[in-house]
Amino acid sequence: SDIARLVQALPKAELHLHIEGSLEPELMFELARRNGIEIPFNSVEEIRAAYDFSNLQDFLDVYYVGMNVLITEADFFDLTWAYLQRVDAENVRHVEIFFDPQGHTDRGIAFATVVDGITRALDRAKSELGITSKLILCFLRHLSEEAAFETLEMAKPHLERIDGVGLDSSELGHPPSKFQRVFAAAGELGLLRVAHAGEEGPPEYIHEALDLLKVDRLDHGNRALEDGTLVARLGREQMTLTVCPLSNLRLCGIKRLEDHPLKRMLALGLRATVNSDDPAYFGGYVNDNYIRTAAAIDLSADEIIELAKNSFRGAFLPEAEIERHL
Ligand code: ADE
Ligand code: ZN
């Protein structure tokens, strides 16, 4: 279709991608075999059939089991390289990827193994594909503040390769305020700050992410639309929202893609972007997110182009680099 051709042709940045969420069932099977790890599935089809979620927690329960096959530096490299090759073919020119170190260090994998594997793939993407990247360490918000501080401590020898910190996992019951001190400490280290907020949680959590965590970008942010004052502020500050339409659909934040608020966000003057979140689990990489959403809510070519430009405007790149992509 014309939309698909436009989306394919547009240079894009992806700003909301959990690298562990790009673990395709085929690679999960392969790594389970390679590492002698039991997984509770007999086939790739069985894995895909299990990806039927009613909410965020439902998905997270499966996501944390899936990542147990990741053991060696080569596993983290293979995972990341597969994602980068995939999005290279979709004309993604810049990626800012999240990783969840606590999902690995808590099962005895060294922090360095994770970072080394991921960054080796990012370096290869730069030299072979011309894809630039940033790496964002996410704290798991269902775990304690103390555990987040321990993770930040583990990151210290690797700050050359880590650009920012984020906050993900179970949102409800784990407000940003729980991590105010560790985000302040991360800021002191010169790290950028982002947080998932308003995916399932109330607008108050978005206020906290802005005021207490001092985020440079908001992940999701959908529920900001319930709060007019907040919408006005996000527009005024040109805060980037990393929206993930297929994720919202698959985690039942919306009933149908036709109900997605992306068009409304743009009309309200919000700097929304389109991202895939956990593409292996939600059934679509970044271009699918653009194409299916555009079809469902009737985005114009101009709106699609604006979304792609926003992905660079919201990227943690120097102004000159951003301009080069617009
Ligand atoms: N971890 C991986 N994907 C996530 C999401 N969409 N929300 C919160 N935590 C996550
Ligand atoms: Zn996410």
Could you characterize the architecture of this molecule?
- There is one protein chain.
- With 326 residues, the chain is of the alpha/beta class.
- The radius of gyration is 18 Å and the shape is globular.
- It is built from 17 helices and 8 strands.
- The chain has a single domain, classed as Metal-dependent hydrolases (TIM Barrel, Alpha-Beta Barrel), CATH 3.20.20.
- Helix 10 links the parallel strand 5 and strand 6 (217-220).
- It starts with a helix and ends with a helix.
- Adenine is lined by residues 18, 21, 56, 63, 168-169, 196, 199, 247, 277-278.
Task: State the end-to-end distance.
Answer: 24 Å
- For the record, the CATH class is Alpha Beta
Global morphology: globular
Number of DSSP strands? 8
SS class: alpha/beta
- Secondary-structure element order, N to C: HEHHHHEHHEHEHEHEHEHHEHHHH
Count of alpha/pi helices: 17
Strand percent estimate: 5-15%
SSE order and pairing:
Layout (H helix, E strand, L loop, with lengths): L1 H8 L2 E7 L6 H11 L8 H7 L5 H11 L6 H16 L3 E8 L2 H4 L5 H19 L2 E9 L4 H11 L8 E5 L11 H9 L3 E6 L5 H9 L5 E4 L7 H9 L3 E4 L1 H6 L11 H6 L3 E4 L4 H4 L3 H12 L3 H13 L5 H7 L1
Parallel strand pairs: 1-2, 2-3, 3-4, 4-5, 5-6, 6-7, 7-8
Helix pairs in contact: 1-15, 5-7
Bound molecules: adenine (ADE) and zinc ion (ZN).
Label this structure with key terms.
single chain, 326 residues, TIM Barrel, binds zinc ion, alpha/beta, 8 strands, binds adenine, globular
